[in-house]
Amino acid sequence: MQHTFDAIIVGSGGSGLYAALEVSGQAKTAVLSKVYPVRSHTGAAQGGISAALGNVEEDDPQWHAFDTVKGGDYLVDQQAALLMAEEAVQAVYDLENRGLPFNRTPDGRIDQRRFGGHTRNFGEAPVRRACYAADRTGHMILQTLYQQCIKNGVHFYDEYQALDLVLEGKRCAGVVALELSTGEIHTFQAKTVLFATGGFGRMFKITSNAYANTGDGPAICARRGIPLQDMEFFQFHPTGIKGLGILISEAVRGEGGILRNSHEEQFMARYAPTLMDLAPRDMVSRAIMTEISAGLGIRGDRKIDDYVHLDATHLGKETLQSKLPDITDFCRTYLGVDPAESPIPVLPTAHYGMGGIPTDNRGQVICDNKGTLIEGLYAVGECACVSVHGANRLGTNSLLDLVVFGRRAGRHMADFVNHADQVPVPADAADFARQWISRLTDKKKGPHGGLILEKMQTAMMENIGVYRNEADMAKTVKQLETLREQYGLVRAQDRGTSFNTDLLELIELGNLADLAFITAVSALNRQESRGAHSREDYPERDDPNWLKHTLATLEGNRVKLDYKEVDVSIWTPKPRKY
Amino acid sequence: MMNITLRIRRFNPETHDEPRYQDFVVAVEPNERILDALMRIKRFQDGTLGFRKSCAHGVCGSDAMRIDGKDRLACKTLVRDVAAKGGETILIEPLRHLPVQRDLIVDQTTFFKRYRSVKPFLINEETPKERERLQSPKERMAFDDATNCILCSACFSACPVLEENPAFLGPSAIVQAFRFLGDSRDQGFEERLPVLDAPDGVWPCQNHFECTRACPRSIKITKRINETKRMIQTYKEGSRCP
Q: ipTM of the predicted structure?
């Protein structure tokens, strides 16, 4: 079936819904979402959204921008970070005005708390910048934006899986999607398409990410020849529940929680004397892995799945209940532990892709290092790379990224559709998608997708993790080449049309395998340590050679690498100490 | 590891006229989630098994289903919660009161339609006096519990009233209405009244407490429904908004 809209938004998390709110009043708009919109993974974000409101102590958007740049190990585009920090203030007030129930100060203002890497006056001490709604800030943002979409009559196509992008040269013409309830393939002609498909953490074995986080937008773009930027930078959040990867918010440390090794030592004091437990996530994750390999993990066996303790016992039941209720509930449910009484066993968990589809600060997709646009195509949120997170994102800046750039992209799309025409969609536009689906469901025998997924996730976790080296990464690149070949033979067991979730999982596996391959090749290529990309064989940051963004283009069985300048127009890169 | 049996209600309207039950033996750890067991079956035994899932830790609301006759999230139910030892059988069925689309997947259209009918968004057309609308911590906490709702439909399935009266608005929609009625910033009481005060609005609730027991987010649903009823009564007696 073919449809025609002015604007199509793929994804219904925070950034997609924000963009939808901005554009839907101005143009014929539809949101395609693989899950019911309220199921999106924005809802799992816990700790807060940063903005220099200064409600509880002095703060300044300049300080916020600087922290973002330094936190990203200077791979951040600085004007974009400044813009985000400046627009953060109004963005948070807008959310409040639209109904978001933030926690409040005694005088009724939005309350704020500390978070990793956010400091006063360019690094002096932690600052209270994170606006929060208990430890379910993302849930509240997602609910509030969905509520506003209902109020404004936004049109949704629920449970539609995007499969392909329709491009005519450097102009976007539409998108192709699978309707899960019927198995029908739909072509959506549109003047403008926005990808807001979220993360791709499911390429790793232990992750905080949802099953739905399979990088559908970036994978579709990669297959259409659009380079992906900085994919080697993947954040491991220091505190995932051991074994499960479920996130324990940094807000626990923001409220005073402490990481301890087997000697009950607050080991972060040795790694980051000023910020200690509130150092940026890349540093804390490395510190944990270093403690474990020195035999200071709780078991002390130096194995990769040893763990450390996150101690919140001194915070008191009242603080835990009022400010961290969900965390308390997770600990009780999954560990049988009450965090008021016992420490929480934690280990780094694959959390956030700093890289993604390259865009400018209006969300417009850029397809090379000369700033060439794919006209009409936009990307925002985790699937995009502006880049405001550089080599390592600060906590709370992801929710901020969603609302600031979701809004900017939505507004620009609304302008764009006013002066743009529809591009004719060729008759064969859905052919690639059709062939992919028919191959997966053609009743032939093929290898099992589950095994390929497990091998990929294990290889990525072991070799493209917190610490990396040449030999392990090269081995993983080879293995991913093989797994991608095997994927070409995979077949679905389910040949039905209605709710064929077996087919859906194989589509997602294809996307993850492509992105894992690009990630591993980009990581192997970057011979330095910066932010979340930490190499045992190149332990130092190397600005003369590597202060540049990676652009990785998928060309069949290989990845072509190119580079793009970093905007360092405000702050000169310096060694990163906390 | 131990082996347990999941007895799953299967139904594919494309190929079958009637639902049937199928047993799967799967190796699990007591600390694993029922969702982990279902994923193992799907990935390594039978790819045709249909169910929804996403966050896998009880915050997205995708995988509500009936587990041994109770409405729960598969990702928030551990094996040890329902099976004390190996060899036990756990019954897995789709939610009630909503049509089954495939196996454990139900059509939530009705559920979301009723949710939308209560105007679940802040109604206040005044321009804020300051950049933020002020609200005291006490006012904020008055509706805190209701903001927990993840629209999973577990309460909708658990509600005995819906068994008798399928037109009842249902527990979740009322909680969502309360979330705004209880918010000091909201002015939409009268706009929501026609839906809430209708014969199939709040009144059919008979305090069975099944919704409260089922809620995976520990919302005191029955209490919120009763508070909503009282707000309506107060309004009708004094003709003023609570």
A: 0.97
